[in-house]
Write a structure and sequence with these properties.
8 strands, 7 helices, alpha+beta, Catalase HpII,  Chain A, domain 1
Length: 320
């Protein structure tokens, strides 16, 4: 930027002054005889709120740290290479959170603990050589063994599978080139956008005093979409046989020419009929101990169609 003598223009002198620090009102925290902090609003209380005071703690003037005591400012966003780049393994905060979560062995916190599975065979309708060079997607006459597991998300190992909940939809393809895992749910959207929040979400949704799910929803606005889906009929399917499946991850397929495509998968019943059960019937079935995989389905095989949605390798800004 040029000055007055170089350009011959008169530039007004601007003086910046820092405003004095403002004094914010701070409501003192009262404490119970046990030393546990109370909520700021003492008048807005009831018996339920009072019963939770034992579990409350005051984090005022305390820094967020890792498991090793390193002070950090953010544990909700992963490090990426650029604006739309991949996640970086140098993000030790994300690695620590995911590793800690994977090693938890609390039965009530195990995600997708309740479920049922079945063996089957997969055949491609027509060759997908234009998208990929994967062998099991080339020959329509070739059969690939698969193993499918349906599950609930929130329930523990002994819970009912007829409750209102998102359903897991995991498929393992036993191909000649190795195992291919396709993990999904019965809804097209997911709870979070960044994987670093997954352990926080599971801890919030699992039963534990106090229940913190709605606190988590209020603090993570991106959950608003999936909460609406959770309150819909998708969370009370009539059976596993009539349930749809949406792949969570986006895969990158590469064909023989080296051209890449981003692909997402969608499982649909062969007759395109998605059925739900009435809320009253769901509670009745839960009381009678009946599940979504009834004995009537044993021996009668169900067919599903797997469709993929592919996009170009470039994003909207032209970056590869």
């Amino acid at each position: 930027m040029c000055g007055n003598t170089a350009c011959g223009n008169k530039t007004p002198n601007i003086e910046f002054r820092l405003a004095p620090p403002q004094k914010f009102l701070h409501m003192p925290t009262q404490k119970q005889p046990s030393g546990v902090a109370r909520t700021p609003s003492q008048n807005n209380t009831n018996a339920k709120v009072e019963s939770l005071e034992t579990f409350r703690s005051d984090a005022t003037d305390q820094a967020l740290t890792t498991n090793h005591g390193v002070k950090i400012s953010d544990n909700q966003n992963s490090l990426r290479q650029g604006e739309c780049g991949p996640l970086l393994l140098e993000d030790f905060i994300m690695r620590e959170k995911i590793t800690h979560f994977d090693h938890e062995r609390i039965p009530e916190r195990i995600v997708h603990a309740r479920g049922a599975a079945a063996h089957g065979m997969f055949k491609v309708y027509e060759s997908q050589a234009e998208l990929t060079k994967a062998a099991f997607l080339q020959d329509p006459s070739k059969e690939t063994p698969v193993y499918v597991r349906f599950s609930t998300v929130q329930g523990s190992r002994g819970s009912a599978d007829t409750v209102r909940d998102m359903r897991g939809f995991a498929v393992k393809f036993y191909t000649e080139e190795g195992n291919f895992d396709l993990v999904g749910n019965n809804m097209p959207v997911f709870f979070i956008q960044d994987a670093i929040k997954f352990s926080d979400f599971v801890h919030a949704v699992k039963p534990e005093p106090p229940n913190t799910f709605w606190d988590f929803v209020s603090l993570v606005p991106e959950l608003a979409h999936i909460v609406l889906w959770t309150m819909s009929d998708r969370t009370i399917p009539k059976s596993f046989r009539t349930m749809e499946g949406f792949g969570i991850h986006t895969f990158r397929f590469i064909n023989e020419q080296g051209k890449g495509r981003f692909v997402k998968f969608h499982w649909r019943a062969a007759d395109d009929r998605f059925r739900v059960v009435a809320v009253g019937r769901s509670a009745e079935a839960r009381g009678q101990g009946r599940g979504l995989s009834s004995p009537r389905s044993v021996g009668s095989y169900r067919q599903r169609r797997l469709s993929g949605i592919g996009t170009g390798h470039e994003d909207r800004r032209g970056r590869r």
